[in-house]
Amino acid sequence: MKEQIKQMIEAADTIIIHRHERPDPDALGSQFGLQLTLQHQFPSKTVLTVGEMATSLSFMGELDQVDDELYKEALVVILDTANQARIDGKVAMTGKDVIKIDHHPDEDPYAPVQLVDTTMSSTSELLVHLLNEWGYEIPTSAAIQFYAGIVGDTGRFQFRGTTKRTFEVAAQLIDAGIDTDWLYRNMYETELAALHLQGYVLQHIQLTDQGVGYVVLTQDTLKQFGATVEQASLLVNSFAGLKGMKCWALFLETDTEVRVRIRSKGPVINEVAKEFNGGGHPMASGATIGQLSEVERVIRRLDEVAANFQF
Fold this sequence. Notes:
Elements: H1 2-11, E1 14-18, H2 25-41, E2 46-49, E3 75-79, E4 97-102, E5 113-116, H3 123-134, H4 140-154, H5 164-175, H6 180-188, H7 192-203, E6 206-207, E7 212-217, H8 219-225, H9 229-233, E8 247-253, E9 258-264, H10 270-275, E10 279-280, E11 284-289, H11 295-307
Parallel strand pairs: 1-2, 1-3, 3-4, 4-5, 7-8
Antiparallel strand pairs: 6-7, 8-9, 9-11, 10-11
Helix pairs in contact: 2-3, 2-4, 3-4, 4-5
C-alpha cells in the first residue's frame, strides 16, 4: 500500500490535501507538512491545501482556494480524518483518485486507497515515517509543521500514545533546525478572555461518584467571557489532573448543537462518542448532541464505562 501511494503521488500533476473539519494541530500540521515536503521534492507539481482555518492556529499557514473543477484530474489526499462525514470539504471525494492516511481506528474506509496505522501518536508522525521510507527530504518548513502536529496530539509528549518512535521522529525534526521556542509561544499563548474562562471552568467542574468529570459551557457563559467556542474547546485538558477522575467531558453550546470533547485516563470512551454522532481515539474523542438536556445521557453512559475501570 505504501508503494502504491508513492506511485500515485509521483504520477499526479495536481495534489489537493484535505483533513477534518474544525482542525487541530495534527490536522493542520500533517496537511501543511505534506504539502511543503511534496513541493520541495517535486517543484513542478501543484500541491494545494484546503479547508477552514482555526483562528487560534492561523500562525501555522495559509490555506488555498481551489475551484471544484480542478478535482476532476487531481489526486486527493485526506489526512487525519476517520469518518467521511468529518472531511472539511465534501468535494474531496470527487477527486480523480482519493487516498486516506490516518491514525484513527478505521471504522469508515471511505477511500479506495488507504493507509491507517493506529499505533502512531499522530498523522504527522505517520507521515514522517512514510516520507523517510520513500527517501523524501523533509525541509525545515515542513518539519516544524509535523512537530506541531505531534506536540498537539501527544499533549506535549504526555499522552500514552507517545512511544520511542515518537521521540525519534521528534529528534529528527528538531535536527532539521526548527524553532521550537517560536512554535510553543504561538501554540500556547492565551488570550485574556480565555484565561478568565479557564478560571470559570476550574470553578465549575462536577465529578460523579464513578469518576466522570464534566463542565458545561453555555452560549451565555461564552458571551460573558467574550470567548469563542474554539477558544473554549482548548480547555478540555485544563482539569485533566483532577484526583479521582477517570474520564471527563467538556460540553460547548453553539447556535445549532452542543459539541462534546471527551478525554480519558483509562476507560475506553470512543464507543460512547460513537453513540452520540462522534468518534475518535479510545482515550480522546468528540461527539455532538442536539441540546443541553442531553448532557445527562452522555454522563450516564460515561459513568457506565468508568464503573468497570479500576486504576
